[in-house]
Each structure stands twice: as C-alpha cells, then as structure tokens.
Specification:
0% strand
Length: 122
C-alpha cells in the first residue's frame, strides 16, 4: 500500500495511519455502522468509487482514491480531509467537525509524522 499511496497523492505515512486507525490492518473488519475493510469504506462510498470493499486490494485503492478526492475538495488541507473522511463531507459541511472527528484527524496526523509537502492538492 505504501508504494501505491503517492500515485494517489497521499503521503504513505498518512495512508498507513488511516488504515491502522480504521481497521488495525484487519481486511475483514466491519464497523457497527457497516463500514468495511482496511479503510472502513461505507458500502455507498465504495459503490460510488467503483470498488469492492470486501477485496483488500480494491478497498485500499478505494480508500486512497477517497482520501485524494477529499484532499482536493478541501484544498490540500489534511486536517479537513481527515475530518471529512471520519464523519462524511456532507456532515462536515453542515455543522463543522465534531470533537471526535477533530481528535481523529489530530491522531492520524500525529501518527503519520511530517508529511511530504509535495503531496496533497494537484
């Protein structure tokens, strides 16, 4: 996965931190809300990305694509990207980040360490 991340415009350390936070690296993980796989994609999100959330490779590609799309939407701001990844972009737009989403983003960024400044918005 680390080798794929840069081709999606996602720093490898950030991709690994998201995967670890989302599923602890368990490709069979399913959340109580119904999120599936390594990147905990909701079925509707996976469908919109054209990926099979139950297939680990497809789930990784979907997670990286989604992170890239959100990062473009939020102008390269990884904090907002991660808040939207956690709670959904519609919810973030409607009310701002919940404290849990802000903590999620801070935790991911802390775990990822310094990010390559060349990664982010195109």
């Amino acid at each position: 996965m680390s080798s794929l991340a840069p081709s999606y415009g996602v720093p490898p350390s950030l991709a690994l931190a998201v995967m670890q936070a989302e599923s602890s690296g368990n490709p069979a993980a399913v959340s109580p809300a119904g999120a599936i796989g390594l990147f905990q994609l909701m079925p509707a999100t996976a469908a919109s990305l054209g990926v099979n959330p139950n297939d680990p490779t497809s789930n990784i590609q979907g997670g990286l694509t989604y992170l890239h799309q959100l990062n473009q939407q939020y102008g390269g701001d990884w904090t907002q990207t991660l808040e939207a990844y956690n709670e959904g972009p519609g919810a973030l737009a409607a009310h701002g980040a919940y404290p849990s989403s802000a903590a999620y983003a801070a935790g991911i960024l802390s775990a990822a360490g310094p990010l390559d400044s060349s990664m982010g918005s195109d």
